[in-house]
Amino acid sequence: MTHLLGLTGSIGMGKSATAQMFRDAGIPVWDADATVHELYANGGAAVAPIARFLPAAIVDGAVSRDVLKTVLAQDPKVLFQLEEVVHPLVATSRKKFIADHNDPLVVFDIPLLFETGADAWLDSVLVVSAPTDVQKSRVMARPGMTETQFEMICARQIPDAEKRDRADHIIETLTLDATALAVQNLIAKLKGQTDARDRT
Q1: Model confidence pLDDT, tens digit, residues 72-92
Q2: For the chain, first and last CA: distance in Å?
Q3: Which terminus of the chain has a smaller tally of CB atoms within 10 A, N or C?
Q4: Smallest Cα–Cα separation from 14: which of 5, 22, 26?
Q5: CA angle, corner 57, sides to 149 and 65, nearest 5?
Q6: How far apart are CA 120 and CA 114, in angstroms?
Q7: CATH number of the domain at 1-28+106-200, out of 2.30.30.240, 3.30.450.40, 2.50.20.10, 3.40.50.300?
Q8: pLDDT value at position 69?
């Protein structure tokens, strides 16, 4: 059997770095953001259906995220149409990934994991976390980031405290070495559980 582990965390909590640590350990990682990028790219499966109700969002044969942001700010209702197109395509990609990987452990990197109800089909959820001041300093160091943008992003995400309450596993991402060790320990634990289930 395969253990399906969800990986999530608020902005600036070290999720991308942690996902890479799983990859470096040979664990297959499905990336929700990368999947959406592929769907929006030239020739991507989301381009034609989005073009039907929002032709202005198609620039040089691809979906422009900048145009989408502008449209969504003016008319939030467009989000529902967008989700009707994108969510089934993302689900198809995810199911194919599961079918293609018969590994003891598979990780799903999903930024809005709890917000989209993904915890319902996962075996367990890992939340990466860091103190609020560390989170803010990491995010504000990003090029072009403003205080207002940071606050808007945080407002769309479930608070870190609630994520931690709902998590099966928590990794503090204060240092890379400590995070890497925690990832290795979790891999060993979950693979051990999978092996034990397979033997019974």
Answers
A1: 888 878 888 898 999 999 999
A2: 11
A3: C
A4: 22
A5: 30
A6: 9
A7: 3.40.50.300
A8: 85
